[in-house]
Amino acid sequence: MLNRRARAKILFLTPITALLLIMTIFPFVYLILISFTDRAATNPNTKIVWFENYAEIFQDHQFYQSVSITLIITIFSVFLEIFLGLILALSFTNLYRNLWFLRAIVMIPMAAAPVATLFNWRYMLNTSTGVINYIISIFGFSEVGWLDSKTVALTSIILVETWMWTPFVFILLTAALSSIDKNIVEAAQVDGANRFVLAKHIYIPILKPFLIIALVLRILDAAKSFDAIQILTSGGPGYDTASYNFLIYLNGIQYLNFGSAAAQAVILIIVLMIISRRFFNRLVREAVEN
């Protein structure tokens, strides 16, 4: 028979396990089942089509275009977020340690609701009435269509994403830096180490696992980017800024092709699971080696 401690563990774990199954595993299994059908709002007679939806995805040029757009947004925005977050964290550790109000200013983008922030950026980037073009015109430059062409619109999305999520990386790395033993830093300074030597040989090696965590979390989130694209450009002009996740939204919500959208979602989930697994294995391997 189970002892009292074992029964208590089962009692506490059963509700959360059941909730996990209901909230995650069941919807995922249902999503997979739907992906093997031709279910759509315009199709009253749903039938199983097996892998036909998946085959159609890889034959659609919009799939490859949306993947390329997703990669562009993810690679550039995540790189800028990690780079700027690291620079800010190191700067506040070395130069602005006691200026708490500057840290608060840096974290302002995370304090506001993302949707409200994105609508503010949409108004500021407006070609005719936006404040950014107004400031540019003061200095005698011509107006820029920030959301009107593919290259400029993608650049605007990347910069807005960077502005919104750099504070997340900054907070994570600042917390990691605060855990470093001051005696190690002071000993290095006594030996003549300057800020660059401290960053290269003490701070960055210690921050490496935290950088990987920030990288994984931001890649997973950026690859699912939807709200910035929906609010700023609605995938336009045309489909020039439609990411893969936005394409799933169009297919499933606007066009009501549930089977096809489910297949697209399954592909995205599998890819993100593979990415997160690879980085997780790397973290575990480095932890064992150290």
TrEMBL record:
GO cellular component, one term: plasma membrane
Topology of this chain in the membrane: Multi-pass membrane protein
Subcellular localization(s) per the UniProt record: Cell membrane
Chief location bin: membrane
PROSITE patterns in UniProt: ABC_TM1
Single GO biological process annotation from the record: transmembrane transport
Transmembrane regions: 12-36, 63-88, 100-121, 162-180, 201-220, 255-275
Residues covered by the ABC transmembrane type-1 domain: 67-279
Cross-referenced CDD domains: TM_PBP2
InterPro entries: MetI-like, MetI-like_sf
Annotated keywords: Cell membrane, Membrane, Transmembrane, Transmembrane helix, Transport
Cross-referenced Pfam families: BPD_transp_1
UniProt-recorded name of the protein: Unannotated protein
